[in-house]
Amino acid sequence: MLPAKNIFSYRKYWAERFGVAPFLPMSRAEMEALGWDSCDIILVTGDAYVDHPSFGMAIIGRLLEAQGFRVGIIAQPDWTSVEDFQRLGKPNLFFGVTAGNMDSMVNRYTSDRKIRRNDAYTPNDEGGKRPDRAVIVYTQRCREAYRDTPVIIGGIEASLRRIAHYDYWSEKVRRSILLDAKADLLLYGNAERALVEVAHRVAKGEHPKDIQDLRGTAFMRDAVPGGFVELDSTELDTPGKVDPHPDPYAMVTPSTCETAEQAPDAPPPVKVVHLHREIPRDHPREMTVVRLPSFEQVKSDPVLYAHASRLLHLETNPGNARALVQRHGDKEVWLNPPPIPLTTPEMDALFDLPYARAPHPAYGDARIPAWEMIRFSVNIMRGCFGGCTFCSITEHEGRIIQNRSEESIIREIEEIRDKVEGFTGVISDLGGPTANMYRIACKDEKIEQSCRRLSCVYPEICKNLNTDHSALIHLYRRARQVPGVKKVLIASGLRYDLAVESPEYVKELVTHHVGGYLKIAPEHTEQGPLSHMMKPGMGSYDRFKALFDKFSKEAGKEQYLIPYFIAAHPGTTDEDMMNLALWLKRNGFRADQVQAFLPGPMALATAMYHTGRNPLKNVRRKGAEIVQSPKGLRQRRLHKGLPALPRPGELAAFARGPGEHGPRRSHRQRQAPPGAAFPARRHGRNRRRRQAGGPQTPPPEIPHPAHAPGAVGPGTALPRRRGGADQRQNDDRINRIFQD
């Protein structure tokens, strides 16, 4: 990978003399106890402050402290006034703002847009302690508190909204969060490298707005500066010569698109634009910028939105990515290339910082569920090269795996054993974004730097990927030998298509590291949705299950696989969901772990959901693949509910389709036997009688459907509706499936 300055090699700031804080201060009293008169940097977060390396603010805060800065934390402030944002006084350098470990909208709303009652990152699991679009709200309050203090935003919420993006909750394309938050600088991805550089340069007198040469940053510009070669990609591909990629390992397949037919209502013809233009051979790649379609274009044209999404994801490899620029009105949103991944020594030093490994004492005995979940777990790596289209891990952490050394991991296990209260000898997880990508990388560094594939394992495992699991096997064995450790479990998601390449690893995992159940995520059984997810087919699952059962039997253990599935994903049809339900029935599963697809910002699957186009392929205005997405609350609920509990009554409604379900009925009406009579609703009269203390109209007596004559049950044919031959065939087909 490209060289980069070690983040721990900077000359430390003068405030290093104050030493290390037991916890980063959250109050003036704590600052005074440390001998501070002010904070150099104040971090504002939507999560409770837990001083543990699994929490972003703890990592960032301790890293800045290691650089010599005095760092304060404002956790979950009251955003309805400015007072909480003045709690620690004015920072000498800048505010750092994040929504927390999760996007604030994902954290607060379900995939059906219902408000969640709880929040795992809040004391006592209490919901409602952070605002919607927390980064924007917090930044505005910081400005109100101290108008002339710079504000730098980061974290997953800011990262995934760095350009124009589709917002599922408002059902519209929103502009870059930089404009809405009015921040001086945005740091995207794992931002340690950029943040350390920014902090030292601001300490020397630079303003964050003037720092425009760092990887992993996004900011506003008035115009493209001189010296850059601009590649105009604001229009769609059209027929024409496609220049060869400058590197044969780039894995870009040249292709052409068909000519769009002219029609009275068709959009204006697009200009011929080559994505790979001839540029001067001596022109450095870092002085090239790709122009994306503007915010105004992608907002009004879904096809151009899909095109922009494809371009963005093709420019994510730090080894060959170019800068991107997108016009927003009279301003330019500029994205520098992604940050260089941290080296193993840097990862070790980052995780060896003096974390208290506990929630801040201000929370007292309050229970923080997210902390309870990870208190005995160890993160061994970062990144994921799976490239699943519905997931944001790859977009945020990158495809190149950043590994810790065995020694650093063993030290953390020993620290958990010695410092964390309540440790019983069980390490709950030894993993990361994916359980089994530790020390797995491209065989050749040059190929890795040149590659432009979106996934190393789809549609099949790349021949250049080293799939050797021996380093992970050795780590497991060392971890089990640590004195005081009775059991090491693996709870992170397992990439089973990768695991089957190493039967020895599967044997080690199944024999020693499964606590009775192993959760894996096939996500679906049908090729249609799987191809739009970039997930492997069920053949890999079958191979893994055979190995899992074999090694469980050899170990004399009764262990089970628990599959996870996604419903209502783009590319999923009603037929696909019925086939999934049939597979579950045939294999004896009742899939309780089914979640409906949630279109998060910047994900490729979200682009499919919004536009109906497939950005995994060249985007065309005509002749391109149209991606159907289950939309509307009723259809999404049916897709989610079908695999979980196939009931014949639900299947009939499912087969009739979302537009033919008939009038809306109450739960009692749906459960009643055919022919049951219901009186007209009289809510108003009953309400008035309740208020007056008079008698109320009793509800009708409805027998339980399981005991009623003619109740639907196993072996009972579904009643046919008057809907023509097609409807009768649908009902008959569903009956046959679930009576087999």
UniProtKB/TrEMBL annotation:
Residues 723-740 have a biased composition (Basic and acidic residues). Residues 680-691 have a biased composition (Basic residues). The keyword Cytoplasm does not apply. GO terms for molecular function: 4 iron, 4 sulfur cluster binding; catalytic activity; iron ion binding. SUPFAM superfamilies: Radical SAM enzymes. Its cofactor is [4Fe-4S] cluster. Binds 1 [4Fe-4S] cluster. The cluster is coordinated with 3 cysteines and an exchangeable S-adenosyl-L-methionine. The keyword S-adenosyl-L-methionine applies. SMART domains: Elp3 (SM00729). Residues 705-717 have a biased composition (Low complexity). PROSITE patterns: MTTASE_RADICAL, RADICAL_SAM. Pfam families: DUF3362 (PF11842), Radical_SAM (PF04055), Radical_SAM_N (PF08497). [4Fe-4S] cluster binds at residues 384, 388, 391. Keywords: 4Fe-4S, Iron, Iron-sulfur, Metal-binding, S-adenosyl-L-methionine. Residues 626-740 are annotated as: Disordered. Residues 370-636 form the Radical SAM core domain. It comes from the Bacteria. HAMAP family: UPF0313. Belongs to the UPF0313 family. This is Radical SAM domain protein. It comes from Thioalkalivibrio sulfidiphilus (strain HL-EbGR7).
